[in-house]
Amino acid sequence: MTTKALTPFFIVLLLMALLPASSTPAVRPEMIRVAVLKGIDQLKIDGSGLLIMDRQREPLRVTPPLTVKGERKRLWVNGREAASLLITASTMVIVNGKGYRGVIEVIPAERGVLVVDELPLEEYLIGLINCEISSLWPLEAIKAQAVVARTFALYQKESRKGALYHLEATILDQVYDGCSVEDARAAFGVRETAGEVLTFNGDLAQTFFHANCGGHTEAVEQVWSVRRPYLTGVTCRYCLDAPTAAWESTLSLAKIEGLLKGAGVAAPALRDLSAGTRNGSGRLLTVRLTSAKGVRELAATSFRKALGSTVIRSTNFEIAVSGESARFTGSGFGHGVGLCQWGARSRAADGFSYREILTYYYPGTVLRKMANGV
């Protein structure tokens, strides 16, 4: 059984139906589809004044709260089978304890269900601020984050045309936990930059960002197989006093061997690790592994992914092996490409405007306001 996602136009009609009548024709907002849950077997959905429909856009006569289960592209709602679900409310829909604006679509998958939140882009950004940074940060840093996140979302929407969703609500794209973490300061920062995006040669820029660069941002081609003239790496000393600037982790060689094996990297009887080559920003390009199979070099990005991005927080690190353990000491947090969030925070505290911050981390880009749809 296949499931056809509702068109954004229909979703907008649903939202408009919940709003008071107005004599002024409504301007259709820019919409975004965010995968907030993937592959989960069971959901609890609740809320006040829920409008619940099936794929045929017919009301479902079920009483909240809903228990939704999915398996092998089949969906059950309070024990009754349904093709898919569309749920909206006058305020928010609560999914597994988190509140979401817009329309929640529940789609059965091969394993569990896919939950997509479709909502106006600007509302999505308000919820995102306190997931990616903090609304307590200087206002200019909030504005910079809003512009970068808006541009990134629209870039992904364009590149994923026709897909069931445009963004994931995790570090794979941008972290988003719904509307429960919204506040007035986050909303103000987003609205102060409403519709503003970064462009390069007239096109949307690919605005990657990360927590802390550790002193120098990274050229994008060192992380992904793309080149962007505005993502070549810049010196950044403003992030060095941040709590994410320095880190340390210790793991046993046996644990590392197991994690590598789980990532498809064979290093049986691993007995030594050492730093390989580095690039111009100081980050490791390779890690040298010594095992029963001899010596091999593994891309540092692959090594970090295998051990976990919260264990090896960046590819700028040193390795010291002692006995059966390896100690990693490093600087920075994240891939290092684009905006350094902690650097932006300190720059804003020093009086730089969000425009100056964006120009520094994305040199050559132009800040523009979208013509409409916001």
What features would you describe in this structure?
- It is built from eight helices and 23 strands.
- By secondary structure, it is of the alpha+beta class.
- The chain has three domains: 8-16 and 31-119, no CATH class; 122-209 and 217-222 and 336-369, no CATH class; 246-331, no CATH class.
- It has a six-stranded mixed sheet with strand order 3-7-10-11-1-12. A six-stranded antiparallel sheet has the order 6-5-4-2-8-9, with no helix packed on it.
- Strand 8 (93-95) and strand 9 (98-100) form a beta hairpin.
- Helix 3 (139-159) packs across helix 4 (184-192), helix 3 (139-159) packs antiparallel against helix 7 (341-349) and helix 3 packs across helix 8 (354-361).
- The chain is globular and about 65 Å long.
- 43% of the residues are buried.
- Residues 1-13 and 15-23 have low confidence and may be disordered.
Secondary-structure topology with pairs:
Layout (H helix, E strand, L loop, with lengths): L7 H10 L13 E10 L1 E5 L4 E3 L12 E6 L2 E4 L2 E3 L2 E4 L4 E3 L2 E3 L2 E6 L4 E8 H12 L6 H21 L7 E2 L15 H9 L3 E5 L2 E2 L4 E2 L35 E7 H10 L9 E4 L10 E6 L2 E6 H8 L9 E6 L2 E7 L7 E2 H9 L4 H8 L4 E4 L5
Parallel strand pairs: 1-12, 15-22
Antiparallel strand pairs: 1-11, 2-4, 2-8, 3-7, 4-5, 5-6, 7-10, 8-9, 10-11, 13-14, 13-23, 16-21, 17-18, 18-19, 20-21
**Rg from C-alpha positions?**
23 Å
Number of strands: 23
User: Per the principal axes of the C-alpha atoms, what is the gross shape?
Assistant: globular
Spatially, the strands of the biggest sheet line up as: 3-7-10-11-1-12
Give the helix/strand class.
alpha+beta
The biggest sheet amounts to:
6 strands, mixed
Supply the number of structural domains: 3
On the 0-100 scale, what is the average pLDDT?
A: 91
Low-confidence stretches: 1-13, 15-23
Helix content: 10-25%
